[in-house]
Write a structure and sequence with these properties.
CATH class: Alpha Beta
Largest sheet: 8 strands, mixed
Shape: globular
Helix content: 10-25%
Radius of gyration: 16 Å
Number of domains: 1
CATH architecture: Alpha-Beta Complex
CATH topology: Nucleoside Triphosphate Pyrophosphohydrolase
Number of helices: 3
Structural class: alpha+beta
């Protein structure tokens, strides 16, 4: 099992995307993705996404908002991936020349025109919803064969935020 993160950084009607065209033997080669990567031992998903964004883009993000979790059974034909999906519009810094691919701000209305994974076309639409989603996308040889999703209301998330801030209610 692998744990990963994805983050969609937004600014003024555009989303920062990564065109995966630089790494040899990249299973995402030619695709456009959000930014993120593998969770390291001892690291929270939030710590991971902040670190990965800095490494891949040079940007420092603040207050990443957890929008959902996606399960990808045997996505790489070997292991299951569990991916924490974030958005943020709070960032600073300048873009770098990423060794992961080409970074580009894409107008939100053009995101679905990009060469994306089929599942991304589905879940990108959920990022603007209030609340939280838990989804499963099953691929076979790089082709989406089925998916499922559960949506949870925003009230659950607000309660979780209160708990995480150290406030305990009895």
């Amino acid at each position: 099992m692998k744990l990963g993160t994805l983050c969609y950084i937004r600014d003024d009607g555009k989303t920062l995307m990564l065109h995966r065209v630089k790494k040899a033997n990249d299973m995402h080669e030619g695709k456009w993705n959000g930014l993120g990567g593998k969770v390291q031992p001892g690291e929270s998903p939030e710590e991971c996404v902040i670190r990965e964004i800095k490494e891949e883009s040079g940007l420092e993000i603040d207050e990443p908002q957890l929008k959902g979790v996606i399960t990808f059974p045997k996505f790489d034909d070997i292991e299951d991936w569990y991916v924490f999906v974030f958005t943020t519009d709070k960032f600073s810094g300048e873009l770098i020349d990423s060794n992961e691919g080409v970074l580009k701000w894409i107008p939100d209305g053009q995101l679905l025109d990009l060469h994306l994974w089929d599942g991304d076309r589905i879940f990108l639409k959920w990022l603007d919803n209030d609340g939280f989603f838990s989804a499963k996308f099953e691929y076979n040889k790089g082709r989406l064969i089925k998916h499922s999703v559960n949506f949870y209301p925003a009230a659950i998330r607000e309660t979780q935020n209160e708990i995480s801030s150290g406030e305990i209610r009895r």
